Amino acid sequence: MPVGGNGGSGTTATGADKRPNELLGSWFVRSGWSKGELARQVNRRARQLGANHISTDTSRVRRWLDGENPREPIPRILSELFSERFGCVVAVEDLGLRSAHQSPSVSGVDLPWTAPQTIALISEFSRSDLMLARRGFLGTSLALSAGSSLIEPMQRWLVPGPANPREEPEPQAVARRAGRLSQPELDLLETTTVMFRQWDAQCGGGLRRKAVVGQLHEVTDLLQEPQPEATAKRLFKVAAELAELAGWMSYDVGLQPTAQKYFVLALHAAKEATDKPLGSFILSSMSRQMIHLGRPDDALELIHLAQYGGRDCASPRTQSMLYAMEARAYANMGQPGKCKRAVRMAEDTFVDAQEFDEPEPDWIRFFSEAELHAENSHSYRDLAYVAGRSPTYASLAEPVMQKAVDLFEKDTEHQRSYALNLIGMATVHLLQREPEQGAVLARRALGVAKKVRSERVNTRIRKTVDTAVRDFGDLAEVVDLTEQLALDLPETADAV
Question: pLDDT tens across 297-354, in order?
Fold first, then answer.
């Protein structure tokens, strides 16, 4: 058999050089997975990412534990799986594995804050994303950044760029350049971005992600042509919104390193567009991802950076959203006092948003009354988990979560949010030792999940059902729910 034919492994140490991988073994034992389960998860994640050549089995897992260093994308996949299992970033190096050499343009988040390089990096990354997805393999791995390696580069978003005014072109040249991209064409690009965002809310990130990436790549082509200053700024704004959306969709289908890279590139584009409120929104998306990955301290740093950047220019609705995300970070850090204070600030500022009569950008319109209740109820729910499944915080979450569910039920444009809040309500009932109600809500969430392509929704349903089985496995409603899950949501790969 050729090297790497089964599972994409690299060279194997032999004889005296071969030593068990104690780091990988430690994470593996603590995970509670069997070798077969880990192999199945690796294969499933590989299919999600388009690496259809990966076919891992128990003997391959045993060889990794014995000291074999697998080829990419296996180290990246193992890093993601263990990160999700333990709720923290588990780097490739933490697993005792070697990652492939990466060029600065492909790996990391500490990128140059200049317009030409921002354009080149977005163009390169979006092209690679499209090509690798089409060919069915991943090639060079990405790695998640966290802690100071993530926060410090993002702080440079607020540092003024070098004074480098563009030369004023001759009037005739301006006229020629203006003809390259007409006002209606620019309007159409912005309208298309709005449409993509609507598709994502309705259908999840798995259905149109590659279309968004393709559109982003086309916009970078336009930015590489000479454009008038005003046109270039609008194009950078479109690029920032598309890159943020590509990141959000990647996050939704489980491509965490890819999502982070797009978010970082989006922030660079927002800076070139001199759009600080948009930059604050992008940082809030990065914060959500860090909460998902079990890094609430990083999430809080990103939110504070977003609040500082948008303090004089963000609308009340944007500020309310940032307060709600601040509450989520504090909840996951186990700080109830600060969490409750941020919840109140989110609610009070949202009142101002309802009286705000100036036009707002499309990217913040998702933050409705339903979304406000959803975020705040999830903060209380998260507090309940951090406090050892506290019924007190669960009781705080229930009425707020119910408001979110009732409002999203009437909102056909945000089906994914409806599913996520049904799941959230189910977890609240499980925390309150009310498994029958939890099972009913989880069933409703399953019905909605079949309509959207969101690995995030699917994963949360599976985790909720796992919790129900662990705590109330003998209950008839839970047994029926488990059987329904196997029918409605089989473990198959979503297209990315």
Answer: 999 999 999 999 999 999 999 999 999 999 999 999 999 999 999 999 999 999 999 8
SS3 416: helix
Structural domain range at position 407:
369-496
**DSSP letter for each residue of 212-239:** HHHHHHHHHHHHTS---HHHHHHHHHHH
Same domain, 491 and 454: yes
- CA 3 vs CA 7, 10, 11, 12, 71: distances in Å: 10, 7, 7, 9, 10
Compute the distance between CA of residue 410 and CA of residue 404 in angstroms, rounded to an integer.
Answer: 10
Q: Which two tokens stand for residue 492?
A: 């198959």
* Beta carbons of 87 and 299 less than 8 angstroms apart: no
| 290 touches 263 (CB < 8 A) | no
247 and 377 belong to one structural domain: no
Whole-number Å distance between alpha carbons of 300 and 325: 8
Q: How many separate domains does the chain show? A: 3
* Cβ contact 216:246 at 8 Å: yes
**Is 349 within the bounds of a domain?**
no
pLDDT at residue 137, rounded to an integer = 38
Alpha carbon of 139 to those of 58, 71, 76, 142, 254: distances in Å? 24, 10, 11, 10, 18
- Report the chain's terminal Cα–Cα distance, integer Å: 30
Contact (Cβ atoms closer than 8 angstroms) between residue 290 and residue 298: yes
pLDDT in tens, 384-433: 999 999 999 999 999 999 999 999 999 888 999 999 999 999 999 999 99
78 with 152, same domain?
no
Q: Does a structural domain hold residue 125?
A: yes
pLDDT more than 70, % of the chain: 86
